[in-house]
Specification:
This protein is α+β, with helices and mostly antiparallel strands. It is built from four helices and six strands; from the N terminus they run H-H-E-E-E-H-E-E-E-H. Helix 1 packs parallel to helix 4. It binds methionine sulfoxide.
């Protein structure tokens, strides 16, 4: 019972932070048009607030049918991920958000860092719905990400994709 209340309070807190943060993110990059500058700023701002183990962008490289790492915050990570591989490549292939409670249970998970225990990957789409890249956030805690993270990160990625990457 008390655990359920604690989880619910945590979700409320996460939601409150996103609600306050999103308008500030939009303000931060209001006059910018360069996608790298925007993604670098979003990565720093989101990582600064949530302090997750790793947070960053992987972008579709059509010439090689791979994702290539973009702006990120955290330790060094894989530079390239093939289509359909790992959580990122699967989110790209299936064009959907993937929340992984425990990375050890996701077949094919790519362990860039042994410290990562859970992760969320959200596709970034252009106005036609084509996937241009993904946002990947990794935590050192099992089961860290929930549907609140998914909903607000999707809102951020929808805005990024249609405003700056299309
Ligand atoms: N774990 C990801 C790879 C990227 S790193 O975690 C930064 C995956 O399985 O796609």
């Amino acid at each position: 019972m008390s655990e359920t209340i604690a989880i619910s309070a945590q979700k409320h807190q996460t939601e409150a932070i996103f609600k306050e943060l999103i308008p500030q993110l939009k303000q931060l990059v209001l006059n910018e048009t360069n996608p790298t500058a925007v993604m670098a700023t979003l990565a720093a701002a989101l990582h600064g607030v949530f302090q997750d183990h790793w947070l960053g962008f992987y972008l579709v490289d059509k010439t090689r049918n791979e994702l290539v790492v973009g702006p990120f915050q955290g330790p060094l990570a894989c530079l390239r991920i093939p289509f359909g591989k790992g959580v990122c490549g699967t989110a790209w292939k299936e064009n959907r958000t993937i929340v992984v409670e425990d990375v050890d249970t996701f077949e094919g998970h790519i362990a860039c860092s042994s410290l990562s225990k859970s992760e969320i990957v959200v596709p970034i789409r252009n106005a036609s719905g084509e996937v241009l890249g993904v946002l990947d956030v990794d935590s050192i805690h099992i089961g860290h990400f929930n549907q609140i993270h998914a909903a607000y990160l999707e809102e951020i990625c929808a805005w990024l994709g249609t405003t700056y990457l299309s």
